[in-house]
Every structure is written in structure tokens, then in C-alpha cells.
Design a protein that fits this description.
Helix Hairpins; 6-stranded antiparallel beta barrel; 5-stranded antiparallel beta sheet; 23 strands
Amino acid sequence: MKYIKRNSFVPAVAGALVLSLAGVDAGEHTAKIGKFEQLIKLKAVALPSGGSAISIDPEVWKTSKIEKFVSHGASVKRGEKLIWVDTKALDEKIEELVKNREKQKLALKKAELDFLSFKATTEESIEKAKLEYRRFQEDYEYYKVVTRPQMLSDIEYKVKRAKDYLSYTQEELDQLLKMYEEDGLTEETEEIIIKRSKNSLAASKRSFAKTERTAKFNLKVATPRADQDWLQKSVTKKRAYEMAMKTLPLELELKELDFAKLKEADLKSEKKLADLKSDRKLLDLTSPVDGVVYFGEFKDGRWVSEVAKKAIRVGGALPVERTLMTVVPSDSKLQFNAFLSEGQKLLFKTEQEGNLRLQHNLWKSIPVNAELVSSHPNFSHQWLVSFTPKAGSVADFAMVGSKAHVTIVAGSYDDVLSVPVSAVTSNPDGSFTVKVKMAEGEPKVTVVELGRHSGDRVEVLKGLENGQVILTP
């Protein structure tokens, strides 16, 4: 539970600034020099100088029903219960989250292991893709630099070898025929040798023809096809490699984001549980001090209680982010507080003395010291001022909420000529005039110079003499 302690006061209705002179006869007034006082009259209320505000500001659990509460004005001890709240639903929610947290922790641990495994596998796949592509590039380069030229050279060599073998076979046959022809005789053995040589020549011719056909096929068909296959494979391998370099890190990043979301969800769940437990503690609304309970709060010189009185009821929702009660310590000092209007503020000095009369006993005057509390006006353009008795304690003759009338003599001057405000006319040219009654004839309009003002009286500096009679409405 969050307790807020602050000095607070009840607003007082600012009294009018008045003059302590006798009333004025209707119709005419005799201007006389006399005592001129500027008085500040206020209505004040007694309030404690401080208190512990009871309010809650839960993070999660915003709805709780009030079961019972201590009454306004009750005396309480520190730690004593102030408001009883139905916490069954909150307690069940906390219990449910506590059970779920174990399952979430295990799920997060498994997700972490899965992510680490996926990360290792992805890194291995990236290295494997790099290795395979690098090896393919090496193989392709070897094909272009070594294998293909060697293959073409082998084809050429095979054709040449077949051609040479055919030539050798033909030469051998020609030599045999020439040799046997010179002998003039052809024996049976020689005929067999010649036949065999002719068959060998025929075979060489077929072999040469076949080798030549194969060489042409390899040169015009097989080799271009191999070049095309290697080129196509190069394009495919490169695309696969580039895709792997893009997709594998991307898949790893997505996996990492998924894992990060799980961790974030886990943290949120943990925070929610912690917030609910903290909110549960807030609902143990107890008094932080020994004192008296007042519904509402003392704020900015006012006792704000209407909202609290309506909101605090059995079966109603417990208000949040709002002061419900204020526990005023038993030893808290009381002071009377009121508000000054702008005109009164201009007359008020930093520290002044005054007289206070309680509303329930107007016949007893209590000397008080006045102290300006606020250095700037509130939204109603008023300044807070507090009053304390010169001797004794306010508690000796008043209690919280006691009302009083306060009078402050802001200024007292002798030998001042003053007239009723109602007798003065303000003119468009900025001058002021009064009507002086003459012995005979019409009254004389006389220009006057004015000074200090107090209530229904104003000081006349020039233009009017003591004893002159002026007309009033």
C-alpha cells in the first residue's frame, strides 16, 4: 500500500476588506478627519498540519469489491485494518500463474536449447555451402584449364593413332605383296599371311573410321554439351549458394526473434505475477500511524471528501489512484486556514497578527499569528494563509473542521479624511469628483484626489476639507 503524507488545509471563504467606521446617513455625509483602518476579514477552518493519505495504485488488478471499512472519525492504531477487500479472485489468479510459471520456464529452457541447436546447425550449413561452392568452382576451373584441353588432345591423339595404325597396316600389306611378287611363287603359308594382313587392314580401316566418327561426335556434340552442362551447373550452384547465404542467416534471425519473443513473454509473465503479488499486498489497507480516520484527503488547503464518501461503500468497487482516507496522527497539530483575495494579498504582510473568533463562540477573541503559506495563487486566484494561536494549542478550543472568523488589521492611520465610495464619481477623463453641498443653490461638483481604499471607504488627499458635507446616492 502506498501512503502519501502531505500538509493539507481546508479552504476559507475570503472575507471582504472593510473599514471599521460607522455607517453613513443616506443622502449626505459630513467629511471628518479621523482614524482609518484597513481590515482583512476571513472565514477560516481548523485542519491538521499533516496526515497519512491512504490510496492504492495497482499495476494490474484494478477491480476489487469493498467488504467493510472503519467509520469516519474512528480512532485506529498503527497496523490496524482500515478497509476489507474481497481478494478471492486475485488470490486464485496468483495461484494459477504460479503453477503456469514452472511450465513456462521449462518451455523456455527447451526453446533455448532448440535455438542453440538450430544456430549451430545453421552455422554448419553456411560453412558447408561455402565449402561445396568453393570446391565446385575449383572443379569447374580445373575442367576449363586441364580436363577439357586434355580431352580435346586425347581425341586428336586417338584419331592420329588410328590413322597411323591404318597406314602401318597398309604399308605392311604392300610390302608383303611386293616381296611375294618378286619371288614369283605364292605358297599356301604366304597366302595365309597375306589374307591375314588384308583382314588386319580392313579392321584398321573400320577402326579408323570409328575413331574418326567418335572424334567428330566428341568435338561437335559431346564437348559442347559438357561445356553447356558445366556452365548450367555453375549458374545453378551459384544461385543455390547465394540463396543459402541469404536464407540461412535469415532463418536464424527469425528463429532468434521467435526465441526473443518467448523470453519477452516469459519476462512479462514473471512481471505480471510480481505485479499481482504486489497488488495483493496493496489490498492490505492498514493504518501507518496511530490516529483518527477522515474520509477523503487534505489537499491544497481543502478537505476533499465528497468523492470518498460516495465511493467507499460495502459492495462497491475500491477506487484506485485516489485518496480514500487520511489518518491524522494523534499528536498532529491543528491550524486555521483561509484564502486571501488579490486585494487582501496586496495588503497582507509576510507575517501578521490577528484575532480569531470561533463560530460556535463568537464572544471569545483569540490572538493569532498569520503566515502566508502559498507563494503563488491557486486556480481560483487565491493565496493560502494559516493562523496559529499565540499561546496554547488550537486543539484546546477547536477540532478538525471547526470554523472561525479572523480579522487582521492590515493598516491603521490617524488623521485621515475619508468618504464613502458611493459618494465618488469616476469620470471618463480619469478624474474623480464628489458633490459638495452648498449653503444655497445647487451642489458643487468638486474634483478630488484619492488615496487608500478600504471596503466602502476611500481616503481623500486633496479637494475636500474637514467638515464639508457631500451628497451620497
